[in-house]
């Protein structure tokens, strides 16, 4: 018997491009953005309640019915859009409207409100230098404040690790992630040696980052009631 902790809860993800108005060739970036989200919608179709869709040109949103791949989805979108910087708000909660699989703009509820709140909080903390920096934040329910704080602290450390990555390291990491986390496949795609892939991953402290991200994802995906059950 599951607890009521996540009963009938969904996961809303809202993301946007940082400083999008300063980006050259915004049409090219938007086209790339659409293709990346289309790939995510196909790859993770079984997890998705409402497809990831661009909403305001530089912003997207989607709704998950499964919590199994929250961080995988975010990481893959982030890496695919390199060197463009993104921020992500994750909201866990109820949905108050009917769910339209093809149009997330028609959906509303606490899950989306919490995701939006996190986007605003990330933005506000950019200019508060005494605050920890993070480009991903989670908000669930009022009685989960301590859990949210713990998860957001881990995500802040992940942001700190990512901030040291070079564009080349990001390219190699994305090739590694998108090719079954196989160094040889990544090396073949990039036309480099496997040892170069291994060196880049090690120098980027990628496995420390991955361990932290996996910890967050494992916690979020645990069966505590909800749509996974």
In words, what does this structure look like?
It is built from 8 helices and 5 strands, in the order βαββαβαβααααα. With 229 residues, it is of the alpha+beta class. It has a single domain (10-164, 205-221), classed as Alpha-Beta Plaits. It has a 5-stranded mixed sheet. Strand 4, helix 3 (110-125) and strand 5 form a beta-alpha-beta unit. Helix 5 crosses helix 6 and helix 6 packs across helix 7 (194-203). The longest helix is centred in the first third of the chain and has 18 residues, at 26-43.
Provide a quick synopsis of the model.
This protein has 229 residues and is of the alpha+beta class. It is 47% helix and 14% strand. It has helices at residues 26-43, 70-80, 110-125, 145-162, 167-177, 183-190, 194-203, 206-221, and strands at 10-17, 48-54, 59-64, 86-93, 136-139.
